[in-house]
Design a protein that fits this description.
This protein is an alpha/beta fold. It has one domain. Helices cover about 45% and strands about 15% of the residues. It is built from four helices and three strands; from the N terminus they run E-H-E-H-H-E-H. It has a three-stranded parallel β-sheet with strand order 1-2-3. Strand 1, helix 1 and strand 2 form a beta-alpha-beta unit. The chain is elongated, with a radius of gyration of 15 Å.
Length: about 110
């Protein structure tokens, strides 16, 4: 059985509270994503929210440095982020490591 490990959400689908860090909505959601060993990709333009809040701009920057929460401008950018993971998954499959958390990609 396969499973999804990336949740891709268009920026327009998120409640504005997500972008106001004082509401704790973004923090609560992203903590759940990490706890369940998933990844969240927010797809779309968040520059207006970044201009409104230095804290949110920093949150985006820090998130994009990690492996669990990404803010990407479009689906092509998400595909580029996921490409190394796909290659590592293919390598694990060839080597017989079928565990979802296989460590060959260094991102477990």
């Amino acid at each position: 059985m396969t499973h999804a490990d990336v949740i891709a959400v268009p920026v327009e689908r998120l409640d504005p509270a997500f972008f106001r860090l004082s509401t704790l909505f973004a923090g609560d959601l992203t903590q759940k994503v990490v706890n369940y060993h998933l990844r969240l990709a927010v797809i779309g333009d968040v520059t207006a929210w970044e201009r409104e809040s230095d804290a949110f701009r920093d949150f985006v920057w820090e998130s994009n440095r990690g492996n669990h929460i990404w803010f990407v401008p479009d689906e092509a950018a998400l595909d580029a982020k996921l490409a190394p993971r796909r290659a590592a998954h293919r390598l694990r499959s060839q080597l017989g490591d079928h565990t979802p958390g296989g460590q060959l990609d260094g991102q477990g």
